[in-house]
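Dataset card, provenance and construction

Sequences and ligand SMILES were collected as paired inputs. For each pair, a complete structure of the chain with the small molecule in place was predicted and serialized as structure tokens. The example below shows a pair involving NAP. Curators did not alter the output after generation; any descriptive sentences attached to a record were derived from the structure itself.
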Amino acid sequence: MGRSLATALPLDFFVDRHLTEPARWPVGLTAQKATIDAREARMQPCRGRVALVTGSSRGLGRVIARRLSEAGADVVVNYRKVGGRSEAQARALAKELVERGSRAVAIQADISQKESVTAMFQQIAAEHGRLDILVLNAARAPFKRVDELLTRDLLELIETNYLGNIYCMQQALPLMRGRPGHVVFISSLGSRFVLPSYPLGSMKAAMESLVKQWAAELQDRQITVNGVTAGLLKTDSLMVLRQYWPGVGRLPASAFVELDDVAAVVRFLCTDAARGIRGQNIVVDNGLCNDILHGSPAG
Ligand SMILES: NC(=O)c1ccc[n+]([C@@H]2O[C@H](COP(=O)([O-])OP(=O)(O)OC[C@H]3O[C@@H](n4cnc5c(N)ncnc54)[C@H](OP(=O)(O)O)[C@@H]3O)[C@@H](O)[C@H]2O)c1
């Protein structure tokens, strides 16, 4: 008997007929196909899904976009700034994902502008006709004490980091109708700890609250909404951070969390295996919060 039925068949049998003529398969082959399908579903749990990652030209968003693409999703890479490095990086990422076999596209949109968000979702609807995964990653904020915030700082803070996410969600929901969907908001430890010159923390806290609200409102649909609260990351914003928290340069490597470790949790929350997790904000900080507590008088 030596070879199994599957290995005895030519490859084109699987490429062509296994998709089109299952009724004609021998019983053993049906089992083989089921095994292959199950393995593919494990390796690529987002296969056939369309994902939008806001602010994915660089930093954490870029890594999340790569991980979702590896999980089988078609990915929409979003960036804000027209021209320059960010746009070039977004286009390069979309090209890289296409070359690896994903369907990917880079779309410019400033999430703080409602019309810009509407135009991005019109493009997604025209291109894919659906959305299954929304990762609310984009963020942009001044590093200032609250009493130093100018009106334009306050507007940027709220329009990008609160309203912008709501605009995206409002546009995404109609494209997610009738199928399982996953929304993940990227938060930071500033939502729960006081960090100097970090007014963004108050927006993250508001959004973590909204994550729970959305999860409850969407309880009856197959859409999960969760947050991932990341610890310190080595991205472009670390350069800016150094100016305001000089001590950040002296922190041990263990104080930082790998971008990949955060992206892995986001990826999991975007799969059907995580359908029971709703309205949670999961901290992924390489244990930084625990360390802070150990170092405190209470620890
Ligand atoms: N860095 C950290 O230590 C840290 C820690 C915890 C949580 N986080 C969170 O993780 C997420 C990613 O942070 P990061 O450090 O990777 O950020 P980053 O390197 O500064 O990248 C930000 C990304 O968001 C985009 N973006 C900014 N404003 C936008 C807007 N209005 N519309 C569309 N896209 C916009 C940027 O595009 P352009 O380049 O075109 O502006 C860029 O692609 C953020 O939510 C952040 O708060 C970061």
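Derived descriptions for this record:
Residues 151-175 form the longest helix (25 residues).
The CA atoms of residues 196 and 245 lie 7 Å apart.
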